[in-house]
Design goal:
elongated, Spore Coat Polysaccharide Biosynthesis Protein SpsA, Chain A, 372 residues, two-stranded antiparallel sheet, 13% strand, eight-stranded mixed β-sheet, Hypothetical protein af1432, alpha/beta
């Protein structure tokens, strides 16, 4: 259990523009409502309350199975704020804080909920908003002491205006999660969610930017280096795909952008992979973990890990270089240190072996890729 925090999910609406009942639509093997309930349960929030209305009886078996509490809202035809009020009215003095999440925002990351909880505990603020690229999204985390004034709000404008009264005690928290801004009102929105749910382990370019610049505050020179490595990796990936390989280009780009996010930490590859894994970006973490040292699986198809490894060895700072040239200065610098020299020589040997494999697939040297 995470303190006395309650999650309120709003699932009482008509779903008019969807032409289907949104809470029970499937999304990667489970319903949208189940996805939202487990979002909170996975971070230790056991008290999940679902405000029901339209077709509410159909939700009861699911709520019972998942251990969530149904909060019927007989006034649901009046609009979403009636459901906000119904849910918040059930809170007593035992609730230190509560989340409010509309059911049609189904792809919020668990790392986002953890980050909001962290800032709620650390900062003396009473409303915590997740923010992505300067825009607030769902779900806000609100101090329990404001439940009564929110449920009693009569000023119009819904939850947004009710919370606007608390702006002096509010805090925006940057999160690596563009999904806080994505709701699902139409069949077209649903199709987009079906695509995005399959790619949740790969942060988008914009999410990578927020992670590096706003969340981890990585040095600008490391960010610039990552951009060039990402460009080389994606160029290699595209060339290989044209030659019949099946590399995931967005995965290569994300791994290139993020591979040095923990630069300066001991064993920065593993440290970076751990950070990414904890944020739910496991498939990217696997590439980042091996970008310094990798074992080549002879006889197997070229992998994204190998492409990232080589791309990193073809970039010095922001300069694209031939692999041997990239290592030359290090070999000279550590010529008198056998242990370090052996490590550098091993990495060069590995990089050249990968380069040879790629060139055999492409049928031409990599100089053309480096220069683009």
């Amino acid at each position: 259990m995470v303190g006395n925090v309650v999650a309120i999910i709003l699932a009482a609406g008509f779903s008019e523009r969807m032409d289907a009942f949104k809470p029970l639509l499937p999304l990667k093997g489970i319903t949208i409502l189940e996805r939202n309930i487990t979002l909170f349960q996975e971070v230790g929030i056991e008290d999940v309350r679902v405000v029901t209305g339209h077709r509410g009886k159909e939700l009861e078996p699911l709520l019972t199975r998942l251990g969530a509490r149904a909060v019927p809202n007989p006034r649901y035809p009046e609009g979403m704020f009636s459901s906000v009020a119904a849910g918040v009215t059930t809170l007593g003095s035992e609730a230190d804080a509560f989340f409010i999440l509309p059911v049609d925002v189904p792809l919020v990351r668990t790392a986002t909920i953890r980050r909001l909880l962290h800032f709620y505990r650390q900062e003396q603020r009473e409303v915590i908003y997740p923010r992505f690229l300067g825009k607030r999204g769902h779900p806000p985390l609100i101090a329990g002491k404001h439940a009564r004034e929110i449920s009693a709000w009569q000023g119009g404008g819904g939850l947004r205006e009710a919370l606007a009264q608390l702006e002096p005690v509010a805090l925006d928290v940057d999160v690596v999660d563009e999904n806080i801004l994505l709701d699902m009102d139409t069949p077209e929105d649903y199709k987009l969610m079906q695509v995005k749910v399959e790619r949740l382990e790969i942060p988008t370019r914009e999410e990578c930017r927020v992670l590096l610049e706003n969340v981890l505050c990585v040095a600008d020179k490391i960010i610039r280096h990552g951009r060039v490595v990402a460009q080389v990796a994606t160029s290699l990936g595209l060339e290989l795909n044209r030659a019949g390989c099946y590399l995931d280009i967005p995965l290569l780009e994300a791994a290139g952008l993020l591979h040095d996010l923990a630069k300066g930490a001991p064993d920065h590859a593993r440290s970076g992979a751990r950070i990414l894994g904890e944020m739910g970006f496991g498939v990217v973490a696997e590439l980042v973990d091996t970008h310094m040292d990798i074992t080549i699986a002879e006889g197997e198809t070229i992998s994204a890990k190998e492409v990232l490894y080589l791309a990193d060895k073809m970039v010095q700072g922001e300069r694209r270089l031939a692999t041997e040239e990239r290592f030359r200065a290090k070999l000279e610098r550590y010529a008198g240190d056998p242990d370090i020299l052996n490590m550098i020589t091993g990495r060069l040997k590995t990089a050249m072996a990968i380069q040879k494999r790629i060139e055999s697939i492409l049928g031409h040297p990599l100089a053309e890729v480096i220069s683009t």
